[in-house]
């Protein structure tokens, strides 16, 4: 039986998908409570986009089950499509239409009347701060404007679930911040969001819960704080005035820390994991002062999600092509068009 739509908006159970000899998904489970954001975090090739395409009915799983808004993605794909909005990695807009015309067309494709489609298009043009450009051809838009228009298109039918597949890929910092703000507004309105991203900062900023996926498997899950706690400890950083003092500093940090210190000579910095936080910092500074080491800067930092990914996988989030069939045809398209 499908999960209750009122409590769980999206559920996947043991999803498996292979392409030739490549096992893109190897038993992926996920669950998104209604009105929350799940961040699916991992490098290119981890299986994020394959997961998205199954949940949006663009692909069928080889095995496993998935439900979106209470509907089985295989048995009832049309109901799933009526319940979702999808914004892919590349903005799916018609360059020869204006921003308004793009959104009006989407509304009509969803079966809206001319009047309702027009009203909704104007509402979204205003909401996404495209008023000054709404009647211009979208080919004149910047990358950030095209991304906002694409996100607006995913919301035309006011879907219960919005799937954002790496929504800030290729955007400059300002564009990323604008997109984050829009996603925050969606969640405030009660929309359920599945967000895939390679950006650890993005998952930390936006997601209520995070799943880390690598080589088609979910390797960890929880809140950002819970994942950071798995790495353990904080990082004590000391920057000294003279590179000749690095050895003495490293010795002190080895004594107060819980791991072997790391020295970055070009920055005259020594780092070490500590379990006692501020106490370790105070003790390190006391000992360095006794040895007349001149400290320029000191910091105590919680582990980042970068640290988490490295600790969990043993490697950085390197890029690797994700095995997909018919990739060029499906990349960036809206689920409603299938």
How would you portray this structure in words?
It is a single chain. The chain has 338 residues and is of the alpha/beta class. It has 2 domains: 8-93 and 141-228 and 316-337, Rossmann fold; 233-302, Alpha-Beta Plaits, CATH 3.30.70. It is built from 12 helices and 14 strands. The strands form 3 sheets. Strands 6-7-8-3-9-10 form a 6-stranded mixed sheet, with helices on both faces. The protein is elongated. The relative contact order is 0.16. The model is unreliable at 1-5 and 319-338 (pLDDT under 50).
SSE layout and pairings?
Blueprint: E1 8-19, E2 22-33, E3 37-41, H1 48-55, E4 63-68, E5 71-72, H2 77-83, E6 84-87, H3 99-109, H4 114-127, H5 143-154, E7 161-165, H6 173-188, E8 192-197, H7 200-206, E9 209-214, E10 217-222, H8 224-231, E11 234-240, H9 246-256, E12 262-264, E13 269-274, H10 278-290, E14 295-301, H11 305-313, H12 327-330
Parallel strand pairs: 3-8, 3-9, 6-7, 7-8
Antiparallel strand pairs: 1-2, 1-4, 4-5, 9-10, 11-13, 11-14, 12-13
